[in-house]
Design brief:
Layout (H helix, E strand, L loop, with lengths): L2 E3 L5 H12 L7 H4 L11 E6 L2 E12 L5 E10 L8 H15 L4 E5 L2 H5 L5 H4 L2 E2 L9 E5 L10 E2 L1 E2 L6 H7 L1
Parallel strand pairs: 4-5, 6-8
Antiparallel strand pairs: 1-2, 2-3, 3-4, 3-9, 5-7
The structure holds coenzyme A.
Coenzyme A (COA) binds next to helix 1, strand 4, helix 3 and helix 4.
Length: 174
């Protein structure tokens, strides 16, 4: 199984796969509020193809922590149902997390099946002081630090998109 970067030709196939696995109402979920202000991180957008068709996808979105540091939101992660249980989900998450770490992202948030994500190092405890812009089942909201301590004492609302530059930086750059 080969994980490849998402390219322009994959967009429509990814949307079809996500409709199939999560349903058409997926856009109503709180995690989609966190994907509104910016596109997915291009260097952290992956697919697996079989016979030229997209059969699995994983992307990460940039979010802003309450302390104005940046972090990632993992997902959506989806595997074509008839190919589930073959390790594609695990391979994509392991690859994505390793790449995120190599690209120096400090932390990753996820809303998903707790047992599945705990096996990749996510925990509810690390996300306990964070809030999301909408309702989620709290046990499903977890986080993993890629830089140890990145989420220590970080308390409050997570926002969509990359951190805005502080006013004094914008002024200095003008
Ligand atoms: C969840 C999903 C991505 C898993 O992908 P997959 O390729 O079938 O998973 P893998 O083959 O990599 O499974 C890896 C392991 O996770 C386990 N696992 C799979 N789904 C799980 C779940 N919902 N909860 C706990 N463990 C799960 C498998 O049993 C397997 O365990 P093992 O390694 O000990 O044998 C896939 O089933 C899917 O697309 N589901 C629908 C969309 C979805 O729910 N996405 C996740 C959003 S949070």
């Amino acid at each position: 199984m080969k994980i490849i970067p998402q390219g322009p030709k994959h967009g429509a196939a990814i949307e079809r796969l996500l409709d199939l696995t999560f349903g058409h109402h997926r856009h109503n979920k709180t995690v989609y509020r966190l994907r509104e202000a910016a596109p997915a991180v291009p260097s952290l957008s992956f697919v697996i193809e079989r016979d030229g068709q997209v059969v699995a996808t994983l992307r990460f979105w940039p979010v802003t922590l309450p302390n104005y540091a940046q972090a990632l939101l993992l997902g959506p992660l989806a595997v074509l149902p008839e190919l589930s249980g073959q390790g594609m989900g695990r391979a994509l998450v392991n690859h994505g997390m390793a790449e995120a770490k190599a690209q120096c992202w400090p932390a990753v948030l996820v809303v998903g099946e707790p047992a599945y994500y705990e096996s990749f190092g996510f925990s509810r405890r690390v996300a306990e002081r964070l809030r999301l812009p909408g309702w989620v089942e709290l046990p499903r909201f977890q986080a993993a630090e890629l830089i140890p301590g990145a989420l220590e004492g970080v308390d409050g609302l997570v926002k969509s998109g990359r951190p805005a530059k502080p006013a004094w930086v914008r002024k200095a750059e003008a």
